[in-house]
Design brief:
single chain, alpha/beta, seven-stranded mixed β-sheet, 14% strand
C-alpha cells in the first residue's frame, strides 16, 4: 500500500489537533484564519485551554467562559487568588500577605474604599508570584464585584457551589444575561449589539460601554464630516 502524502495527512483532524495543542494563543488565532477546518480545531475548547495553561504550567482550568474572548490571551491579569474574608482582615493586610499593591486589590474588586471589604465574603487578590500557578487548578468564574470572568486560584480548598461575590459555570449564563440586559439599557441598543461589545471586551461591561461609546462618537463625527 502506498504511503499517504504528507499534505493529505496534515488535513486530518487528529493530526491537526495534535499540532495545534503545541501552539501559543497568538499562533492559534492565526491558524483559525486559514480555513474552516483549521478554525474549528483552533477554536476547540481543549485546544485553546491547553495554550492558555502552557505559559504558567497549569494542571487544569475548570469551567467554560461565557465569551470565547476569554481565551485570547493568558496574561497574569487573567488570574486571581480567592481569599475568603475573616474577622480582622484588611486590604492593606492582604496586600502584605500576598505581596501585591493595595490599589491593585481595590481595582480588581472595584472598591472605592477599604470599607467595601465588610460587605463581602471574599476578595479576589491579583497574583504577584506566578510560581503559585505551577501545577495548580484554576476555576473560571464570573465575579459580580470584578464584573468580569477570572481564572480563580483557591489556595485553601475549592469553590463552593455558590459564593457571595462569585458564580461558577452553573450560574454564569444567568450572570451573562443580566450583564447584557444592563448593557442594552445603557446603550439603548438591542441584545445583539450588547452581546457583541461584551464579547470583544473580554466580558468586561465597562470596557464594552467604552468601546460602544468610541464607535458611536466616530460614527457621529463621520456623519458630520
Amino acid at each position: 500500500m502506498s504511503p499517504i502524502p504528507a499534505a493529505a495527512a496534515l488535513t486530518t483532524a487528529d493530526i491537526l489537533r495534535l499540532i495545534f495543542t503545541a501552539l501559543s494563543l497568538p499562533d492559534l488565532a492565526r491558524a483559525a484564519c486559514v480555513c474552516r477546518m483549521w478554525h474549528a480545531i483552533a477554536s476547540d475548547r481543549d485546544v485553546v485551554a491547553a495554550a492558555f495553561k502552557a505559559p504558567w504550567r497549569l494542571r487544569e482550568v475548570i469551567g467554560i467562559p461565557s465569551s470565547g474572548g476569554f481565551w485570547r490571551e493568558s496574561g497574569l491579569e487573567k488570574f486571581a487568588i480567592s481569599h475568603r474574608l475573616r474577622d480582622g482582615d484588611s486590604v492593606a493586610g492582604l496586600a502584605v500577605k500576598y505581596d501585591v499593591q493595595v490599589m491593585d486589590i481595590k481595582r480588581l474588586n472595584n472598591m472605592m474604599s477599604d470599607h467595601g471589604i465588610h460587605s463581602r465574603e471574599r476578595l479576589l487578590v491579583p497574583i504577584g508570584n506566578p510560581d503559585l500557578l505551577i501545577n495548580s487548578t484554576c476555576y473560571i468564574e464570573l465575579d459580580k464585584y470584578a464584573k468580569r470572568e477570572v481564572a480563580v486560584l483557591y489556595l485553601e480548598g475549592g469553590p463552593e457551589r455558590k459564593l457571595n461575590g462569585s458564580t461558577t459555570r452553573v450560574s454564569s449564563d444567568q450572570g451573562k444575561k443580566r450583564i447584557i440586559e444592563s448593557l442594552r439599557r445603557s446603550m439603548r441598543a438591542d441584545d445583539g449589539t450588547a452581546e457583541y461589545y461584551l464579547s470583544i471586551s473580554d466580558g468586561d461591561p465597562r470596557a464594552a460601554l467604552s468601546e460602544f461609546s468610541q464607535d458611536l462618537t466616530w460614527e457621529r463625527n463621520t456623519n458630520m464630516a
